[in-house]
């Protein structure tokens, strides 16, 4: 399977768009949006930078935007301010007539890239040889269309950090074991919350082509975790949590379940991006929070809730660098291209991959 990138226009931003003022970018972006009218919708992930997400018609996490995408049948152009796998998912869930556009093709996801389809196919053969037909694959939506398609073909489904508990409950009702891709931390944290001991979890290392950290007989395992992670959420540590508590015992710690197991266990609370947002919005004035997730979201929450003390858990800035590649110049580039009937950086997924990816996604949407 290959995801197609149509009309990349050399994937290079024109020189004329590299050095405008903020006001010039803003005026031209808003003019293009007005010219495109009802043909256009802009989707923005919560981790997107402020100067871009301000133009989004819909903001959300992966599950929210997946559900929105299914209902956008009247939109000719869908500009996704996020990362590559999100645009792939949107193309999978929308019609052939609609065009999904990613403003900057460099906006990828290091976690998604950690699950290569060839390595997954090889791992599946090896796991089947050792454990037989006792395993069902589940992939976090932070994965490529090829991985979603693999999961769909093998009876599995996708999940988000919002619905991971529901999805794993469904999966365990199907088979004894789950192969969880590509984020080992979300899989481990979710399964642990469901009562599965760490001793019954094992990590598959695709580079070694074998399991690592096996603390029990293979037959006793329940969770087979792919050796992948989020480069942002792995930066948060127990030492950071302890430091905040020493400085201010009233500080509440909330983190994303893509953080390590040790960090999630040390925090006061954990949950998806939407969960974190909802907790902050419901908190009383005077509340104090250190949040372990992407910095753009944390800063936005702090700006939106000045009645609370909100800070990033880490002392160093933790941005999603690939998400941040979507900026005003690239957004303007693709929008003005559409005004000229020139589609730049269209993302398409081939029909066979779309078919099985949609099976996996539909199973998830049916569960949640």
Explain what you see.
With 368 residues, the protein is an alpha/beta fold. The chain folds into three domains: 133 residues, NadA-like (Rossmann fold); 115 residues, 3-Layer(aba) Sandwich (Rossmann fold); 80 residues, NadA-like (Rossmann fold), CATH 3.40.50.10800. It is 41% helix and 18% strand. The protein contains 15 helices and 16 strands. It has a six-stranded mixed sheet, sandwiched between helices. α4 links the parallel β4 and β5. α1 runs parallel beside α14, α3 packs parallel to α4 and α7 packs across α15. The chain starts with a strand and ends with a helix. About 2% of the residues have low confidence.
Our count of helices gives 15
- The beta-strand count equals 16
CATH superfamily of the largest domain: NadA-like
What global shape is seen?
A: globular
Secondary structural class: alpha/beta
Helix % is: 40-55%
Report the major sheet.
Answer: 6 strands, mixed
As a percent range, the share of strand residues is: 15-25%
Average the pLDDT over all residues and give the rounded result: 92
């Amino acid at each position: 399977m290959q995801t197609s990138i149509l009309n990349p226009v050399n994937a290079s931003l024109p020189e004329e768009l590299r050095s405008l003022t903020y006001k010039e970018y803003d005026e031209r972006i808003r003019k293009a949006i007005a010219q495109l009218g009802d043909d256009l919708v802009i989707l923005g992930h919560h981790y997107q930078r402020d100067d871009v997400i301000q133009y989004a018609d819909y903001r959300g996490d992966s599950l929210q935007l997946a559900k929105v995408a299914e209902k956008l049948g009247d939109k000719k152009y869908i500009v996704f301010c996020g990362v590559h796998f999100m645009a792939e998912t949107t193309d999978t869930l929308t019609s052939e007539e609609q065009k999904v556009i990613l403003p900057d093709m460099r906006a990828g996801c290091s976690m998604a890239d950690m699950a290569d389809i060839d390595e997954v196919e090889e791992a599946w053969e090896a796991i089947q040889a050792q454990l037989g037909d006792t395993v069902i694959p589940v992939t976090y939506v932070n994965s490529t269309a090829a991985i979603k398609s693999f999961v769909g073909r093998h009876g599995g489904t996708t999940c988000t950090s919002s619905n991971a508990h529901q999805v794993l409950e469904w999966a365990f009702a199907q088979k004894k074991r789950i192969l969880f891709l590509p984020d080992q931390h979300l899989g481990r944290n979710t399964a642990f919350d469901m009562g599965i001991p760490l001793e019954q979890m094992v990590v598959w290392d695709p580079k070694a082509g074998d399991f690592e950290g096996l603390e029990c007989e293979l037959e006793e395992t329940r969770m087979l975790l792919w050796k992948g992670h989020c480069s942002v959420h792995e930066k948060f540590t127990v030492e950071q949590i302890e430091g905040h508590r020493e400085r201010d015992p009233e500080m509440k710690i909330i983190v994303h379940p893509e953080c390590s197991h040790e960090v999630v266990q040390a925090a006061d609370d954990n949950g998806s991006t939407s969960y974190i947002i909802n907790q902050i919005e419901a908190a009383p004035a005077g509340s104090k929070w250190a949040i372990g997730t992407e910095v753009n979201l944390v800063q936005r929450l702090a700006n939106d809730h000045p009645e609370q003390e909100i800070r990033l858990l880490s002392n160093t800035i933790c941005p999603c660098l690939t998400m941040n590649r979507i900026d005003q110049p690239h957004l303007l580039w693709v929008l003005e291209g559409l005004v000229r009937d020139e589609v730049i950086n269209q993302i398409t997924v081939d029909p066979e991959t779309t078919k099985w990816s949609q099976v996996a996604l539909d199973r998830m949407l049916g569960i949640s």
